[in-house]
Structures are given as C-alpha cells and as structure tokens.
Amino acid sequence: KILKSGAHENPQTHRMRINTHNEEDVDDLLDEETAIRRWGCNRTDAPFIFVHIGKAGGGGVRARIAASALDYNRKSWTEYSNDPTYYYPILDISSSTVPMMHKGKFTSSSAFNFISPNATIFHSDFSFEGVVYCAATTPLGQAIACPFDWIRDPCRDADNDDNSQDRCDLVYMGHNLLGSELHWLPDKYLVKWWQDTPWGKEYSTKDNTHDFIRHAIVSRGAPTTVPGEWEVHYKIPEIIGSKNDTSANKLKIPGLHCYQVPQGGRIHRQRYIEEAYQNCSHLKEPIVDQLCNYVIKEHNKKSNQKLQSPIQYAQMIASLPVIRVTVIRDVWSWLLSKFFWHPNFYSRNSTLVVGPWKGEPSFATRSYNAQRKNETVPPLIKCDDIEEAAYGWGANWAMTYLSYLCGEHCLSGWISNQMTLDEIEGQGAYNLRHSFAV
Asked: I need a labelling partner for 430 at 20 to 30 A (CA). Which of 39, 128, 179, 255 fits?
C-alpha cells in the first residue's frame, strides 16, 4: 500500500493491488502525520480480518459481520462450523475475460496469538485464542520464524473451484494482535506480496536467483529431516556473518529441527507447538530479524535515506494486501472495563496475582465460591490505587492496547528492550492511518 509502482493498475496482479484511488491517496500513505485514509469502505477484497480488542465493544460487530454472509442460516453466529451453506461473495477481476466470484468462508478465533515467552504478564490477555511462543521483533521474523499450520486450510475457496495458494478467501475475527495473519497466510501469498514491496523489488528477478527472502518464506517450515542443517539461500550466511561453508548453502545450528505439528485437539496441538518452538522458531528468530533489518537498510541506502526508521516495520505491515477492521474505545473507559472484567491479574510486583475490589456484596460472593472450590481469594485492590494503576494493571493493559495497534513484533521488541515506548506509539499511530481499512 505504500508503493508508487502502479502495480494496482495491472489486472493480472489485482489480488496484490494497492488500495488507493488516486495519487493523493498514494502520497498520504507515505506520510505518518496525515489523516486516516479514505479507501476502506465498500471493499470486496479478502482476506478480511477483524482485529478484536477485548472490551472495546467489538463483540456486536463480529456478530453483524458473521450475519452479513449470504445464505446465513443459523441461530447463533458462533455456530458457523455447523453451517456449510453460507459464504461471502468475493469478486476476482484478475481474469482478462469474465470476473470470477469466489466463496469466502468465516472463521472465529481459530489462530493462536504468538507472544514472547518472556511476556508472561501479558499471556492471560490472549487466553481465549491461546498463546504460543514467538519472540521475533520484526514482521518478517514473525512470518518466517514462526509459521502457523492450520488443522484445515481456511484460505481455500469454499466451493473448491480454486486450489491455488496465492489467494486467501477468508473472513477472520479474533482477539489477535495486528499482523498475526503473517503466521498463517499461504507461502505463495506471502511471496507474491513480498515481490511487490519496495524491499522485495530489490531482489526480484525472473529466476529468483537473488531473492533470499523468497527462499526463506517457501522453506519456513524446514528443516524437517536432518536436525541442525537448514538449507538456506547462499546469501543468508553472508549477511548474518556465519562461519558455515556458504558453498553448501546450509546453516548448521545445533538442535534445530522443525518437525511437523500433528493433527489432534487444540490443547494437544498447543502443547506440541510450544515444545517445537524451542527446537525451531527460537533458533531462527534472531537470524530472520537480522535479514529483515538488512533488507530495510539496503533499501534505504539505494533511496538515499540516512537513518533506518522503526516506522518502516509499520510500512511493511501496511503493505500486506489484507483488509483489516477494528473498534477502538476511549482508553480510560477501556481500562476500567478491563479492571472489573478480569477476576485476577498481576500486581505492580509482576509476580503477585491480585483481583479487583467490587464492593462488599461481590467480595462475599467471591469468598463463598472460593471456599466451595477450596481456593483462596487473592488480595483485592481498588481501581483508584494510583500506585497499582501506574505500575501494575494500568501500565500492563495500556501496553496491551498499544500492542493491538502496533503488532506482535512491538510487544516482543518492548519485552526485549529493543523498542522504546515512543517507537511503539509511532508505529501504532501509523498503523491506525495506513494498516486498517476502517
């Protein structure tokens, strides 16, 4: 979406087109100080992603989006898996002859949240979808080092008339941070996006000889055979300063083994994915983050930009051809809703669990229920305890709010002291203008 290449005028690349209507919009996308863009309404593109910030009032919006499907025929919008008839009409005009209508499908909270294992104080905020680990601090690091394989492919057209994997006819909703789709979008979809970005264009050729990011995307699930040997593009060992034999195009990393996650129940799969993180994603994260920083720096050199601005991570997320929608709420009202909604949360100590004080009647009920379960009521605090708000629940949930708008990589960067609060706020503000359609 930050391109001026005119790719959106090519009917053969319609699925990757830039969502702009005139040159003024294109200029707006390059300026983080401009107003929210105008292109978001009346779109028929996919995937459509609703970023649901919990307690911001998005539940009713999800119900209405679910009910907007054609042939909608169910009593509850959450029973979509039991209704095979409904679909969303998605028009594909990439064909030079007659436009094709694809049938988009709906799924809700089906993808995990990928959060740093060191961000334990934030894990409970994402328990609905479930938390698996990823500590990558760049968008490419999130996409390549931490791929997510669905139990069933959700991107395939509902009527199976299109088996290609360079499109994704999906309407997805969940309490997932901005950019979480980088984990589950098909490899061919990501490759097509990458080669249309200003960074990817630096390396794109007809035979893809020099495109090491493309190679990393299509092999992001490797190695699955010989542990410790990751077959990579010849350029990668050179970039990361590896002492490996570059002629063999292999990185030898002790313990690296990216075995496939088996089919099975959600809890079983989550446990298996977390175990696999230590043997695969965790070892790849610093390498791919370094590659992401490299392509940005090289692009800046060629375009005579002296400094590498953190805002370019936000530009990378904004360039992804998806339609994102969210609902935001006044932050003070939102914080109070979070305070009274959660029965337990971390105190300013970050190791002590506390709860919200809701008055004597509520305390009596909670004590009675705890006794029946042989549990202990944690220390309860009041919402006007300034110390707890400033250094405990208030500060933690304020960062959660920012992370929804900035992205998963921002939370990882904050936890690892690689991003400042100003940088996170800057990326969040940019994303509100350029990464969300509405």
From this structure: 128
Measured CA to CA, the distance from residue 58 to residue 75 in angstroms comes to 20
Report the relative pairing of strands 113-115 and 353-356 from DSSP bridges: unpaired
Question: Rounded to the nearest 5°, which phi and psi values hold at 413?
Answer: -65, -35
The 10s digit of each residue's pLDDT in 164-203 is 567 888 999 999 999 999 999 989 899 999 999 989 988 8
Q: What is the pTM of this model?
A: 0.86
Q: 292-313: buried (b, 16+ CB within 10 Å) or exposed (e) per residue?
A: bbbbbeebbeeeeeeeeebbbb
Question: Which among 408, 423, 415 is positioned nearest to 143, based on CA atoms?
Answer: 408
Among 191, 188, 242, 232, residue whose Cα is nearest residue 212:
232
- Convert the pLDDT of each residue in 106-140 to its tens digit: 889 988 899 999 999 999 899 899 898 999 999 99
CB 187 within 8 A of CB 204: no
Q: Is 186 exposed, middle or buried (0-12, 13-18, 19+ CB in 10 A)?
A: middle
